[in-house]
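Q: Structure tokens for this one, please.
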Amino acid sequence: MIIKIQLFAFLIFINLKSNAQWQPDARLTNDSSTSFTSYNNSRCIAAKEDTVHVIWEDSRDGAPEIYYKRSTDGGISWGADTRLTNNSFTSWFPCVSVNGSNVHVVWFDDRDGNYEIYYKRSIDAGTSWGSDIRLTNDSFASGRPTIFATDSVVHVAWGDTRNGDVREIYYKRSADGGNTWGADTRITNDPNDSRHASISASGLYVHVLWIDLRDGNYEVYYKGSGDGGLTWGTDTRLTNTSTVSEYPLLTASGSVVHVVWADGPVSPSNIFYKHSTDNGITWQPDVQLTNSSTAISIAPSLTVFDSMVHLVWQDNRDGNNEIYYNQSLDEGVSWGTDNRLTDQVASSESPFVTASGTAVHVIWQDNRDGNYEIYYKQDPTGNSVGIEENSIEYSFSIAPNPVRRGNNFVININSQPDTRNSKIEIFNALGENIYSEKLSSKTQTIYSQFFSSGIYFVKVIDGEKMLIQKVIVQ
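A: Here is the predicted structure, written as tokens:
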């Protein structure tokens, strides 16, 4: 059977020389009380073009409240702190999502005598804010919400104890950009604890991740919807280890779903990654991204922009907690090397990452000032790929694409390659190099009968430049 897959073509121009340009740390908060980023299943930073939105929990007013700050010039300068909640009770664990000029925020709040989920939005990119909207209403605790907005649909998931002492994962959505909300939907149903939901969406596909105690220890579970959250598939167990799997987070781009978590979570604890290329139907094997027998690597956060995957996490390999970064240029097939972003005697914790335009933006909480404050850092070129000045631009095409097994496909390069140091490499979805040949001309014929059905990544390397493109064999 021919699997019909909507192909989106992408090209990446990459200067193989290091182009990381991480800027100095910028302190975003400055008060004598604590300012905390949230738990990693939430997201405390989001960006759309040059506007960067940051949200955190702050106790400067006594009880913790939710605060917001933005930059309208890509993180170069920042506006004033904006207090989003104002009550004498505790407001915790905020999460933010951006869709166009709409900024959506959720948190949980005990103003009603027990913890409930609250929502707030701005329709003018954070300039002004609407009123608080209570999303849950039951006599038990609802907490640690996560939110994701796409088009006019806003998706929210959280943990809830209304079914007894153990938590279950619940979901609700708004189909009109947050104006009105549908009913609560119970996502999990087992007698053990389910917690720390993470949510993402791409088109009509909605993806929810959580950790679950049904197997005797916490494992990562997944559930998907193909109709915008109206109906849901079955639970899928993504991890199977004898240790605790913790700090889960997922994000989706097109049909690719990316998942990251920490396995430990006490010493040693390492960061793991896996992905699905078919909207969560099947999953590739686990990929271990850190490899320490003594360090604690936890609280991973990732974001996706086209084929680029950006990952940050908290790591104590240096003797204290620091923020580390890694990236994949090919939708998670292969990964680079770890990059240490902070270098302080104090503790740097709970990072979050987003990308927009050419920049990668990172925030975290840091106690270098004697109390926890919010810090920010950016790489203005980290979400782009550079070509050296005066270099010859080039591209290549693959035809046909998709290609049937048994037929050949041809790679055509639109300029004369440097045949002294040029080659074609092809990788499968597991990142394994299955083809490598030196380039001798502008046209290369690949015999697809040697490939199984699936997704492959074709890399054309020409001197210090490299291009990547996806090909589907049916």
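A few notes: The chain has two domains: 22-379, 396-473. The CA atoms of residues 276 and 283 lie 5 Å apart.
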